[in-house]
Amino acid sequence: MPVQNYEGYKFYLNADLVSHGLKKWGLAEWWRNPPLRYQRLLRKVEYLTNCHRGPINKLRELYYRFRLRRLGLLLGIHIGRNVCGPGLAIIHHGQIIISNEAVIGKNCRIHAGVNIGHWKTGAPKIGDNVYIGPGAKIIGDIKIGDRVVIGANAVVCKSFPAGVTIGGVPAKIISQNDSSNVIKTPGA
What is the 3-state secondary structure (H, E, C) of 22-42? Predict the structure, then answer.
C-alpha cells in the first residue's frame, strides 16, 4: 500500500529506520548511510506524488525528484515510486535496479547488484520479509512468497512458495529455512 497521508509517510520512515537497526535519523546517519538517505528521499517523493496537488507542491515534487535522481545516479540505485512497502533495507549501494512495475512487500532486505525487472508479461511480486542476496536477478511476471531467502547471484524466473531458501542459476529450492534469522522486523 503506497503512502497516502502524512501519518503513513512517517510510518514508512520509521519502519525503514528500524529495518536498518537505527532508532533515529541524524547527521551522522546521513553521512554514514547513503542508501538510507536515498530511501528517505524516495519516501518524500512518494508522499509528495500521492498526497499533494497544486502548482507549488508540483514544484516541490520536481525538486525532490531531481535530488532523488541525482543521488540515485551517484549511488547506482533506481527504485520506482510506490514499489516497496515499509521497512525496506538497502544494505549497500551499487547497481540496484527495481522496475517501476514490481511490487515488494514490507521488511525486504536488498543487497548490491540486485535487479528486479519487467519481462514480457509483467514484473515480479515479492512478499513480506524477503531477503535478497547480492547480485540476485528476479525477472518476469512471478510471485515470491513471504519469508523467502534468495541467495547471492541467483537468477529467479519462476514463482516460489513462502518460507524457503532459493539459489542457483536458474533458481531452485535449496533449503526449507526462511528469512526469520536475517530480517529485522518492527517489534522483534
Answer: CCCCCHHHHHHCHHHHHHHHH
What are the chain's domains? 1-77 (no CATH), 95-178 (2.160.10.10)
What is the CB-side half-sphere exposure of residue 166 using CA atoms within 13 A? Answer: 28
Which three three-digit cell numbers place residue 48?
Answer: 509528495
Classified as helix, coil or strand, 71 is helix
Give the residue from 64, 100, 98, 68 showing the smallest Cα distance to 81: 100
State the pLDDT at residue 184.
61
* pTM of this structure: 0.89
Q: In what order do the strands lie in the sheet with 125-126?
A: 103-104, 125-126, 143-144
Nearby residues of 59 by Cβ (< 8 Å), 6 or more positions away: none
pLDDT band at 185 (very low <50, low <70, confident <90, very high): low
Q: Tell whether the model's pLDDT for residue 137 goes beyond 80.
A: yes
